[in-house]
Automatic annotation (TrEMBL):
It catalyses: L-seryl-tRNA(Sec) + selenophosphate + H(+) = L-selenocysteinyl-tRNA(Sec) + phosphate. Keywords: Cytoplasm, Protein biosynthesis, Pyridoxal phosphate, Selenium, Transferase. It comes from Telmatocola sphagniphila. The lineage of its organism: Bacteria, Pseudomonadati, Planctomycetota, Planctomycetia, Gemmatales. The gene is selA. GO terms for molecular function: L-seryl-tRNA(Sec) selenium transferase activity. This is L-seryl-tRNA(Sec) selenium transferase. It is an enzyme of class 2 (transferase). Converts seryl-tRNA(Sec) to selenocysteinyl-tRNA(Sec) required for selenoprotein biosynthesis. Its main location: cytoplasm. Its cofactor is pyridoxal 5'-phosphate. Gene3D superfamilies: 3.90.1150.180, Type I PLP-dependent aspartate aminotransferase-like (Major domain). GO terms for cellular component: cytoplasm. InterPro entries: PyrdxlP-dep_Trfase, PyrdxlP-dep_Trfase_major, SelA-like, SelA_trans.
Length: 479
């Protein structure tokens, strides 16, 4: 028999529906949170279940007091829950390839078409003409042959996976010669020496940090050498007295000794970026022309596609990679392959001009265009004069994603100096409304280059400055 006091407490708890109605009423009073109905019901139910357990265990809980606190907690959880889920954000940082924001953005039409083709059932591994089983990489291979002049190609999850696959399939328990100046770390967890270790290949470093000559490679070649590797310094540059062998020299040496030469170029640039004032990234077709046996690059850096790692080069080597059991674990899914196919098609359609993909459209936005857009943006915020000061300023941005560390893109930013809150608070409020911005010299900087919907950003900024932010607003009203 239950203690009668416990019974009374349990009976005074509201039903789930009643608690949900109370939360809805609070939202009507203080502004909708914009949460899903299922989430509201779920959180209310779990909140009631937790209190029921505490009462059953004999805790002397004053139900009306608990209810008051529970409403706050429920609203807060409803507000926070979407922040912990994957959601679209507005990127106002101006960093086009932001690794933490998913690197290359993919334009919605391409996205839509690619998911339509592959989302449900698709001819992923069946040849519709003959009816026999085919390879999922085949369509991509043909596009890459046309775009880069390579003999063959394959695709895996990312460039890190590509590197591991190549090293394991071609250099397991044998030596790979790399210049000391190219033992890079990219994105925190991609470190060449560690990648070598997990793949089972032995790293043989040659030369010094700044100078490595072809002779250093030549002297290191031994019977246990498996391949020569060049790695692009992606996210840093060494200046001053520097020297490293050209790809042509490596190819000549490698072929003299019957050793394949692997070129990890990192960012897959297929067309010259000089029209954008950038000439610091290796061109993929040029590595093929120079005779590299395999060239590796990412799909979501300057190629502008989905996350994947592309390997192009000699047919015999690609076949060897595809036969490795690891290939099975590293292969891409149908959606990725479809997105990559759509992206590569855009390059083919563009011939030698820029492909019509979102990344290149963002790169191509001129300073003048940004200035006009930013001025218009500020003009539309005139009602917010009491909350903040807005100014146009010239700034520099970077492409990001471990590419072009030396090439600052001149850009225009909107400097926001909030009058009654700190820049940190404004940034936090924006973040909780799915907007990422930069802070510099105690001002919030908004760079419209990477913003795909100016109006939406203006609306969010207005709410953040006016303090229409549920938790703060809610706390203030409840006091
Ligand atoms: C970025 C990069 C990688 C890693 O590519 P992911 O696709 O991020 O795995 C490997 N090598 C080089 C040279 C890179 O620049």
């Amino acid at each position: 028999m239950k203690d009668p006091a416990i019974q009374i407490r349990l009976r005074s708890l509201p039903a789930v529906n009643s608690l949900v109605d109370q939360i809805v009423a609070w939202e009507a009073k203080f502004g909708a949170i914009g949460c899903r109905d299922e989430d509201r019901v779920d959180i209310c139910r779990r909140s009631l279940e937790a209190i029921r357990q505490r009462i059953l265990q004999g805790e002397e809980i004053d139900v009306p007091v608990w209810l008051e606190e529970a409403r706050h907690a429920i609203v807060k959880e409803l507000q926070i829950r979407p922040l912990h889920q994957l959601n679209e954000v507005i990127n106002a940082t101006g960093i086009i390839l932001h690794t933490n924001l998913g690197r290359a953005p993919i334009d919605s039409q391409l996205l839509h078409e690619a998911t339509r083709k592959a989302g449900q059932y698709c001819n992923l591994e069946v040849d519709l003409e003959s009816g026999v089983r085919s390879q999922r990489q085949k369509p991509i291979r043909e596009f890459l042959q046309q775009l880069t002049g390579c003999e063959s190609a394959t695709v895996v999850n990312n460039c890190a996976a590509a590197t591991i696959l190549v090293l394991r399939a071609l250099a397991s328990s044998r030596e790979v010669i790399v210049s000391r100046g190219q033992l890079v770390e990219i994105g925190g967890s991609f470190r060449i020496p560690e990648i070598m270790e997990v793949s089972g290949a032995k790293l043989r470093e040659v030369g010094t940090t700044n100078i490595t000559r072809i002779k250093d490679f030549e002297k290191a070649i031994q019977p246990q050498t498996a391949l020569l590797m060049r790695i692009h310094q992606s996210n840093f540059r060494i200046r001053g007295f520097t020297e490293s062998p050209s790809l042509e020299e490596l190819v000549e040496l490698g072929h003299k000794h019957n050793l394949p030469v692997v070129d990890d170029v990192g960012s897959g640039v297929l067309i010259p970026l000089t029209p954008f004032g950038m000439n610091d990234e290796p061109l993929v077709p040029r590595s093929i022309q120079a005779g590299a046996d395999l060239v590796l690059f990412s799909g979501d850096k300057l190629l502008g596609g989905p996350q994947c790692g592309i390997i192009i080069g000699k047919k015999s080597l690609i076949e060897k990679l595809e036969k490795d059991p690891l290939m099975r674990a590293l292969r891409c899914d149908k959606i990725t392959l479809s997105l990559l196919q759509g992206t590569l098609q855009k390059y083919l359609q563009a011939k030698d001009s820029w492909p019509d993909i979102l990344l290149y459209r963002l790169l191509a936005i001129s300073i003048e265009e940004l200035r006009v857009r930013s001025a218009k943006f500020i003009a539309e915020l005139s009602s917010l004069e009491e909350q903040a000061e807005f100014q146009l300023a010239e700034e520099t941005a970077y492409v990001g994603g471990g590419t072009l560390p030396d090439q600052a893109l001149p850009t225009i930013v909107i400097q926001v100096s909030p009058k009654s809150i700190s820049s940190e608070i404004l940034c936090k409020r924006l973040r909780e409304k799915f907007v990422l911005a930069r802070i510099s010299e105690d001002r919030v900087l908004l760079d419209l280059r990477t913003v795909l919907n100016d109006q939406k950003l203006a609306g969010v900024l207005k709410e953040a400055l006016e303090g229409i932010c549920y938790p703060d607003h809610f706390a203030a009203s409840a006091r």
